[in-house]
Write a structure and sequence with these properties.
The protein is an alpha/beta fold and 278 residues long. It contains 10 helices and 11 strands. Strand 9 and strand 10 form a beta hairpin. Helix 2 crosses helix 10 and helix 6 packs across helix 7. The longest helix has 20 residues. It binds NADP nicotinamide-adenine-dinucleotide phosphate (NAP). The site of NADP nicotinamide-adenine-dinucleotide phosphate (NAP) has 24 residues, from helix 10. The site of NADP nicotinamide-adenine-dinucleotide phosphate has 24 residues, from helix 10.
Length: 278
């Protein structure tokens, strides 16, 4: 088994971006909007700001109180859509319950939607004519590519069908000519389906969900899950200790997919700048 080092791959992506920005002397801005006091969101936002610093992207943080109204948030997004210093807009999810997330995401200009959650960008991914790829699935593709594994013609199984991970993940694998199966909570014979996979991507959100009997010998296993185990330690969906000796490549948690998501956000922000400069 070989461990896929997400920290190293993400550092290489960020260095590639930093160099391009420096060489072309680009001025790039990313607006990061956070509403409320969610601690996990705070950590994500700080990590995104750190990545911006590494790459030479200016980050503009808008930390709004929990009681911010949907109208106030939409007004801010309107301002950011029209602010030429801002090339990308990221609204950290989840938003407080009284704000309609779909409405807010839909309000971000598709040209600045660096998370690629806006319906226009989701539709473009479906037809294979995209400006931005959603960060987590794009990061997974980078990790698979880093192993040198051929994707074309392979059996790929994605567990999870969320709009931000599972569905776009399946689409990106399909674009690279994999034969893709998407599994979810109503899938019958889940273990048998997963055991067919040459490449298995788990995005469920349950610790220890993927057991060794669900993994084909020699498979590539990508663990998107971010969970806490009984001891409160960060862990993925995969029963790492028992799966690691059965597969060819595996991502650890932490240090696998997580760092890639942020690196791909930087890539999308650079791409936004380039598209807006055409
Ligand atoms: P989500 O919206 O909760 O989706 C979870 C998916 O898992 C759903 O499609 C659900 O099926 C499926 N599922 C749940 N129980 C199942 C079961 N018993 N058998 C088969 N499928 C089952 O979660 P998400 O936003 O996609 O995130 C998934 C995980 O990835 C979470 O742990 C999250 O924290 C993590 N994540 C990590 C990153 C990163 O950067 N590393 C980024 C995003 C998310 P149904 O649709 O049928 O309910």
């Amino acid at each position: 088994m070989t461990l896929i080092d997400g920290k190293a791959v993400s550092a290489a992506v960020k260095e590639r971006i930093r160099k391009e920005i420096e060489e072309k002397n680009l001025e790039i801005g990313l607006a990061v909007v956070i509403v409320g006091n969610d601690q996990a969101s705070r950590v994500y936002v700080n990590n995104k700001k750190k990545a911006c610093e590494i790459c030479g992207i200016k980050s503009y943080e808008y930390a709004l109180p929990e009681e911010t109204t949907e109208y106030q948030l939409l007004k801010l997004i309107d301002d950011l859509n029209n602010d030429s210093r801002v090339n990308g807009i990221l609204v950290q999810l989840p938003l407080p319950g009284h704000i309609n997330e779909k409405e807010v995401i839909g309000y971000i200009s598709p040209e600045k939607d660096v998370d690629a959650f806006n319906a226009v960008n989701v539709g473009k991914i479906m037809i294979g004519n995209y400006s931005f790829l959603p960060c987590t699935p794009a990061g997974v593709m980078e990790l698979i590519h880093s192993t040198g594994t051929e994707i074309s013609g392979k059996e790929c199984v994605v567990i999870g069908r969320s709009n931000i991970v599972g569905k776009p993940m399946a689409m990106l694998l399909l674009h690279e000519n994999a034969t893709v199966t998407i599994c979810h909570s109503k899938t019958a014979n889940l273990k048998e389906v997963c055991a067919r996979a040459d490449i298995l991507v788990s995005a469920v959100g349950r610790a220890g969900f993927v057991t060794a009997d669900m993994v084909k010998a020699g498979a590539v296993v990508i663990d998107v899950g971010m969970n806490r185990n009984a001891e409160g330690k960060l862990c993925g969906d995969v029963d790492f200790e028992n799966v690691k000796d059965k597969c060819s490549f595996i991502t650890p948690v932490p240090g696998g997919v997580g760092p890639m998501t942020i690196a791909m956000l930087m890539e999308n922000t650079l791409r936004a700048k380039k598209l807006q400069s055409l």
